[in-house]
Structures are given as structure tokens and as C-alpha cells.
Design goal:
Layout (H helix, E strand, L loop, with lengths): L7 H6 L2 H21 L5 H17 L6 H27 L5 H26 L1 H10 L1 H30 L6 H28 L1 H13 L2
Helix pairs in contact: 2-5, 2-7, 4-5, 4-7, 4-8, 5-6, 5-7, 6-9, 7-8
């Protein structure tokens, strides 16, 4: 019997309800992360403010464009790819399913905290910085994580139905579809890394002078 590649469109459509679920969970994490900003002590806020100020100053330092950007791209891509690999690994087993949900919530918390702190600390200038440094790449990175998570949950649920409820279906075909989604999302993360490496720094150099005196 000839092997047929997985139908990506059908595979994604079948997981539509899971996309909604993980999206809501992610948004709850964003809200929780934004609320955590209010729990910071004055000393913690000052430490974060100093670290952010040092980051602004580092943008004006001369650097080797080729070596620095190559290292930056590799580091950024690996840090994003680790999220994809983690979700993929968790999706391979039934016991990993709840941890996929936790990973989505934590990612939401991190983004919510970052944006919440910037806006709380710098007001509209912080919002400008967030729109420059946080939002653009996450317009691609977050959907990639959510799609990967939905695929991981879908595969875990299939394994539960297949092993415990004798659900009919090809494990290899489901696994192929899951892997295809993961590979595509890894490519998306490569595009996000390129954006962070070549586009975001230039935007930050334009925004930073407007925030130094904030």
C-alpha cells in the first residue's frame, strides 16, 4: 500500500476546538502575568529598571555585525526551538498532556509580565517599546506555539482513545501529521529568529533614545 502524506489542512481543521482552548489558556496566562507586576517589591522594580537601562545603553555599543548577528540568530532560534521541542516531546505520551497546558500558560505569563512591566514602568513609552520589542515577533511565535500545542494535545488524546478505548485509526499516520506540524512551526520559528536578529534591533535603536530619559 502506497504511503500518503498527511493532509495538513484537514489535520489542522480537526484540531480547531483545541486551538480555541489553548488560546484561552494562553490569554489567561497573559492576564495573570500582567497582574504579577503589581506584586513586585520596590527593590525588584528598581533592579528590573536598572537592567533595562543597561540594555538600552548596550544598543549603542559598536559590534561586529556578522559575528554578532550570526550568534544572535543561532541563540534566538535555539531558545524558540526549545519550546517547540518541549511541546513535541510532551505530546508523545499521555502523561505529558497536562504539561503541554502548563507550558502554554507559562508562556502567556512571561509575555503578560513583560508587557505589563513596561507599560507600568514607562507608561505610553513602555507601550511603544513593547510594540517594538515584544509584539512583532510574538505575532508569529505565539500562534506557532499554540498550533504545536494543539497538535500535541490532539496526538495525546488519540493515543488515549487508541490504547484504552480501542479507537480505530493509524498511529503512524497521526504521528506523521503531528511531526509535519512541528516541522512547519520550527520553520516559522526560524523566520521569527531572523526578525529578532535583523529587524528588531534596528527598531530598538530608534525607540531606545525616547525611553532613556523616561
Amino acid at each position: 500500500m502506497r504511503w500518503q502524506p498527511p493532509n495538513m489542512k484537514k489535520y489542522l481543521q480537526e484540531s480547531a476546538s483545541l486551538y480555541l482552548f489553548v488560546s484561552v489558556l494562553f490569554l489567561l496566562g497573559v492576564v495573570f502575568g500582567a497582574m504579577l507586576v503589581n506584586a513586585l517589591s520596590l527593590e525588584q522594580q528598581q533592579d528590573l529598571s536598572r537592567a533595562l537601562g543597561q540594555f538600552f545603553q548596550s544598543l549603542d555599543r559598536p559590534e561586529d555585525p556578522d559575528a554578532s548577528r550570526a550568534a544572535s540568530f543561532a541563540g534566538t532560534f535555539w531558545s524558540l526551538l526549545k519550546w517547540i521541542i518541549l511541546i513535541w516531546a510532551l505530546g508523545l505520551s499521555v502523561i505529558g498532556l497536562p504539561f503541554v497546558l502548563i507550558v502554554n500558560f507559562i508562556k502567556g505569563v512571561l509575555i503578560g509580565f513583560s508587557v505589563g512591566y513596561l507599560v507600568g514602568q514607562y507608561s505610553w513609552k513602555g507601550l511603544l517599546f513593547a510594540l517594538t520589542a515584544v509584539v512583532p515577533q510574538n505575532l508569529l511565535a505565539v500562534p506557532a506555539l499554540l498550533v504545536t500545542s494543539a497538535a500535541a494535545i490532539s496526538f495525546s488524546l488519540f493515543l488515549i482513545r487508541h490504547h484504552f478505548f480501542r479507537h480505530r485509526g493509524s498511529v503512524s499516520r497521526q504521528f506523521a501529521g503531528f511531526n509535519a506540524v512541528v516541522i512547519v512551526m520550527a520553520v516559522v520559528m526560524a523566520a521569527v529568529s531572523a526578525m529578532e536578529t535583523f529587524v528588531t534591533p534596528e527598531l530598538l535603536r530608534w525607540v531606545a533614545p525616547r525611553l532613556v530619559g523616561a
